[in-house]
Every structure is written in structure tokens, then in C-alpha cells.
Amino acid sequence: MDDRYNFYGNDSQQPYVPQHEKPATETSCGSTQTPPPQQGYGSQGYGQQQPRSSYEQQQNGYSDRPYNGGYNQQNSYSRQNNYGQQNSYGSQNSYNQPNGYDQPRRPVYDRFMYEPIGFEELERAKAPLADQELSSGKKRRKSETAAVKLFAALLIVAGGLSIFGIVHDIVTSKSIVEKIGPQQQVVLYKESKPKGYDDTEKYKDENGKYTPEGAAALVRPSIVKIYTYSDYSAYSAKRPMGTGSGIVLNEDGYIATNAHVLEAEGYHRIETMDGDFYDAKIVGRDAKTDIAVIKVNAKGLKPAILGDSDEAVVGEQVIAIGNPANLSSTVTDGIVSAVNRKIKSDSSGFEMDCLQTNAEISPGNSGGALVNMYGQVIGITSSKYVSNDLEGLGFAITINEAYPVIEQLVKNGFVAGRFRIGIQLRDMASDAKIAVIEEKLGFELPDDFKGVYIEKIDQDADIAKSELKEGDFITEINGKTVSTYDELYDTISSQFQAGDTVPATCAHLEKGGKLRYYQIKFKLMEDTSGNY
Predict the structure, then answer these.
(1) Catalytic residue check, 290
(2) Were 245 and a residue from 34, 176, 367, 426 both cysteine, which residue would form a disulfide, CB within 3.0 to 4.6 Å?
(3) Residue 475 lies in a domain
(4) How far apart are CA 128 and CA 142, in angstroms?
(5) Full-model pTM
């Protein structure tokens, strides 16, 4: 056997393909086949005769068969391995099938030489691809260069147009301004009311009824602002503790207001609608009715006209004039919402006859006027009678209720016939008030117990000479049970007057529910202080 035969192993070996050129064995459909064994066991001296390969049995070898451009040769490898199995590899490998890849033939090494066959065709196939890639790269570079040049040209054109526009505007700006001409004056149309528009008679009909603006023009000069100072130093520094309103009663300077607007030991000034200031002094002050009168030394004040509040009709149009939030001569309008309302003052608890209105009444309105459309004051507005929880709910003390008190205060400086017991008390009108009393005592009251709790006794009062002590209760007045302030006041005022002696039943409670009753008598004193 020659060296070539030993090199290839046997004559059934496939044509030699170098390792770097050897692809995975493929079928015509691209599936991978396990390569046939390279040699049988007999070739290494195991005594088995190997059949000749089909490579040598082909009638036309590589020198006789014309080249068809691919692996279109039939390769059949049929041999018996030493396990007795027949392996046949007769698959047709072709790259020129209809569904093949149409690639050039790879170089194949001849068994007699180391030099591959077919490199020329591979090089010829690769050359067009390289030329195509080179041509594509050149075209791409040319496109990029053209885009850059176009962008630069656009920038140059845009910059030139901008410069041209700026220069053109500078050159032609003067002529443009001349064409526009001077700025035209804006025409606004304004007219005044006809002469005599402020004549109050023009706002009054043939029956003497004013419009709201007519009534306001008539009464506003009669409403003043009242400044209250706690002491002389505050008065000197002009630091008021509060402001309110007042109604001028006559030309001599008497002014009506609410008692809670004033400070009993304080200083007061007024300011008229014209801005004039005057010092004022208290003529009389009645905390029970919340009515007070002050006086200023001024002449020529315009008094308000007082009306008859009994003539007020529900739905009648009214205006409220005052100084809410320190805003002088403020006018709000509304109607009479109800008449003959019995309302208790927040400060005294005394019940007064009031008119209900939806005209806005705020702190600072206290002491101001509720005016009908005839220019008449029919009520004295008071923020003490205003509901803080509800909107559009205000009250004014009827002028018919306030007038007798005003007369008494002007005449006497106090309301004559008022009596004073000389005690400060807490009643049992509600569960909340009872709870306060029990808290002060430190224990609960017995069931069904009634009376008024005595918090303080004035030492200058006649009742201070009796057995009654602070912390005890008055349970009866002349045999009638009392447990509220109204019951106490009504029982005494219906049977007694200032200077009379009043019999009363009192009770002393001890912790644990021990109760002791005792009887006293005390003399009623005339109340001239106005501090109810």
C-alpha cells in the first residue's frame, strides 16, 4: 500500500476538506446529518476487508465529469461496521437546488495534492460583494456631505435674512412712525346727575314716603360714631377699646345709644358724619334694658325723627344705619321680618320688645337706627340681640319700648321705680346651668330640688344683714317657688316695690344630701346705678 493510501486511510474516504473550510454536513433541506465514520476497523489491521468506495467506482471522476457549479455528485457510503449495522449515507448535497442558497462551490482538496480547487470561483464571487459595499459606502458619505452642506447653507440664508430684517427696520422705522401719526386720544363718556339730584324732596312721593336713598340721606347726619376708652390714659393716647353708634335726639346734644356700648367708669367721644369730634359724658345708663343716654356740648346737631314702632308692618321696607367695623355711616337695607318679638339681652337676660329684620346688623351697629321709608326711627339696633349662628336675623329694640327709658334717663339719670335686691345669682333654667351649680357645690343636687343659687351678696344691701349666705339657695318668695331669674323678678315686681320688705324661704345644702330650710326677710332698695 502506498503512502497516499495510508494518508487517507482507505479509498472510501471522502475528498479531503481542510478543517477551516469544513461546514456541518447538511441535507438539501438544511438538516444536520452525523458524518460517516472516516475509516473502518479493518484498515488498522483487524483483518476485515473494506469495500471500495464509490469514489473510485464512479465512471467519471473529477477529471472526466464536467463541473456543474456545486456538489451535485452522488455520495454513497455503504459499509458494514463491526457491530453488524448497515450505515448508508446516500443523501444528495446540493447548493443549486430550487430552495438552495445558490452559493459558489467551496474549494475541495484533491486526494493527490494539498492545493485546493475552486478558490478562483470563491474570489470571483466575493469581488462583486466588496465592490458593492465600497460603492454603497461612497454613496452614503456623499449623502452625508450633501446634508451638511445643505444645513450650512440654510443657516447662512437664515442669518442673512435676520440681519437684513434688522437693518431694514432701523432704516424704515422713522417713516413707519410718521405714517402712524400721533397717538389718538381715548374718548370716555361721563355725565353728571341733573341738578337737584340730592334734594331729599325728589326722593319722596306725594304721601311723604321716601326711597331708600332718600331715607338714608335724611337720617345719616343724625347718626354719630361713639368711641369708648377704658381710662384717661387710653383717652389721651386715643386708643379706644371699642366703637358703637348713637342717635342724635335733639339739637342740645343728647344722644341715645346702647348701654353695652359705654363703659360706666370710662371716657367717651363722638364723631359726626361731617368729621367733627366732641367729648361726651354719660347722662344715664340702664343695663337692664340696654339703653343709655350721653350728652355733648355742641350746637346745631341734626336730630332724628322718632316714629311709632306699633305701626310697623311685616314686609315693610327698612334701612339700618350705623358704624359696623368702624365704618362710618354705613347703610344696609331689608324689611321688617316680624314684630313684637320678645328677645332677651345677652348681657342682662332681660326681655325686651323687638322688631326682627333681615337688614345686616353687625358689631358697631349697636346704638344705631332702624328707619322706615318715611325717615322715622322705629328701633334702636343692637348686636347683643343678633343671632351669631344664623344669617339675616337681626333685632332692634322698638322705639316705643325704649322711649320711656330714654325719658327717665334724661330726667333722673336712672329709671325710677327700679328695685335692687343686692345679690348675684345662677338659676336652674337648664341642665347646663344646673351642672355649673353642681360643679361649684362639689356634689349633685337632690331630685326635684328647685331654687336660685346665690353666688355673691352686696354688703351694702339690706339682704346682707339676713341669715342668707353665699352658696345657699332662695327657694320661695312669699310662698311661691322660684327657680329662674324671670320667676324671681316677676314674683317680686308683681307684689312689691322699692322700700318694701320681702319674705323668702332659703335652703342650705350639705354634701351627702342633707338639706336645711330657713326663713329670711329683706328690704328692697331703689336702684339708681343702672347696673342691673
Answers:
(1) yes
(2) 367
(3) yes
(4) 21
(5) 0.59
